[in-house]
Specification:
Elements (H helix, E strand, L loop, with lengths): L1 H34 L6 H32 L9 H30 L5 H19 L15
The structure holds protoporphyrin IX containing FE.
The site of protoporphyrin IX containing FE has 25 residues, from helix 1, helix 2 and helix 3.
Length: 151
């Protein structure tokens, strides 16, 4: 169980960087398309879908990690006295799940939009989701629950 846990945490941590780098690229493409009034290209929609795939992988890994973390902590009993438990069992998981949901909603609304409104919706939905993610990552500098840059 320990080895499995280590592998899952490492995959979750590596995937964070793939998400962040691809997210920056997606926002660059969407922002450039919106601000420069470019014609919609299906390649941008495809890029957004790759981003969602990485997020879904992260959600799956996160759910398994949540189960392990939850059972090791003995449930929610230690949440109030332990910043790391509170952060991972509540803030991190809830905010990340919301961010992933928002990105999926964004993909849906981009699909429904007229071509001239697609880049704008893509930029706004993925942008807010990206900011939520940035704010909920356990960066090394965070007191009590910071985690390494990689592992
Ligand atoms: C874009 C979404 C997400 C990102 C970028 C992200 C990022 C991270 C990072 C960087 C860590 C620290 C890894 C390490 O210790 O090296 C972590 C830990 C964790 N994440 Fe996420 N996460 C995301 C989504 C989720 C979701 C949706 C859940 C739960 C439903 C979740 C549950 C957890 C748990 C429980 C841990 C602690 C694992 C442990 O140490 O046992 N994460 N996450």
């Amino acid at each position: 169980m320990d080895a499995l846990h280590t592998i899952l945490v490492e995959l979750h941590s590596i995937n964070r960087w793939l998400i962040l780098f691809l997210g920056i690229y997606v926002l660059f493409i969407a922002g450039r398309g919106w601000f420069n009034g470019r014609a919609w290209r299906e390649r941008a929609g495809q890029l957004g879908r790759y981003f969602l795939i990485l997020l879904d992988i992260q959600l799956l890994l996160g759910l398994v990690l949540y189960g392990i973390f939850f059972s090791r902590q003995g449930g929610f009993g230690h949440v109030s006295g332990n910043p790391a438990s509170r952060f991972f069992l509540m803030e991190h998981s809830v905010m990340m799940a919301l961010a992933i949901l928002l990105a999926h909603a964004g993909a849906y609304f981009v699909k429904k939009a007229a071509p001239e409104g697609k880049y704008k919706r893509m930029f706004l939905f993925y942008g807010v989701a990206f900011l939520l993610m940035l704010a909920s990552i356990p960066w090394p500098v965070m007191p009590g629950y910071g985690r390494p840059w990689l592992f």
